[in-house]
Design goal:
Blueprint (H helix, E strand, L loop, with lengths): L23 H25 L11 H9 L3 E2 H8 L3 H13 L3 E5 L7 E5 L1 H22 L4 H25 L1
Length: 170
């Protein structure tokens, strides 16, 4: 354990597959991922506070998926976001009112409603992403190039493992 930093100095140096899921390394990784996620979320919100983006902040995860998957349905979005369909329907109705999302009937099945970004929605999400990138870059600025390389490498490795697990689950 790195006493100065209060973290494990070599959690990734362990042989692949040898990490005990109930052990201290797994616990530390889970804790750190949660804390980094929370801290970034809080920092993004602090930066958006008082701006037009602040009131859209709670909707951004759903908006992001509509941007990624134009024509997604409310059912698909609810399943993807792991939230009730009724919640997604309420949020999408609000976003339609704000002229950020538009609903279109599916051409082959009129019972289905497809969600698409409006030009204003695209402009706002682009602005939100740029603001988040600036915040992230300010946050990372004190780190050296070597530290950033280690973080980026570790994140790539973690993402690759998660994507393999996702593929294997299908």
């Amino acid at each position: 354990m790195n006493v100065r930093a209060g973290t494990f100095a070599r959690p990734l140096a362990e042989k692949a597959g040898s990490v005990d899921p109930e052990g201290p390394i797994a616990e530390e990784v889970a804790r750190l991922l949660g804390e980094v996620h929370r801290a970034l979320h809080d920092e993004y919100f602090r930066q958006a506070n008082g701006t037009a983006l602040a009131r859209l902040f709670p909707y951004m995860p759903l908006l992001r998926e509509v941007v990624r998957q134009p024509g997604i349905t409310v059912n698909e979005l609810a399943r993807l976001a792991h939230v009730p369909k009724s919640h997604v329907s309420v949020v999408m109705a609000r976003l339609v009112e704000l002229d950020l999302v538009r609903k279109e009937a599916d051409e082959s099945d009129s019972r289905l409603v497809r969600l698409h970004m409006t030009p204003e929605g695209r402009r706002r999400t682009k602005s939100w992403r740029a603001a988040n990138r600036r915040t992230l870059m300010r946050t990372l600025q004190p780190l050296s190039d070597d530290q950033l390389a280690v973080i980026v490498g570790g994140l790539h490795q973690l993402l690759a493992v998660l994507q393999r697990h996702e593929r294997d689950a299908c």
